[in-house]
Amino acid sequence: MRTTFVDKWARQRAAGKRNYVLRYGVLMTGMGLVLLFSVLDLINNGTVVYAYLLGRIVFFPTIGAMIAGMRWQANERKFAKLTNSEA
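The chain above was modelled as a monomer; its predicted structure follows.
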């Protein structure tokens, strides 16, 4: 598992932090939650309230970006620990 993480993270970190945060934080997590809550709103209320939709579009990607930034830092620490112990 250690080499799997190191290889995967080496590829992801080569793409850069900005790309990682945009891809995993803003798009996958943030917009995924926007879609999920909008579908739930549609199911429960029969319509999507645009004021809530606008709030979701701002709130969830922002939270997703913060979480992805924290994950980046955690993965960097794990990568450093694993690569230093292998040397």
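The chain has three helices and no strands.
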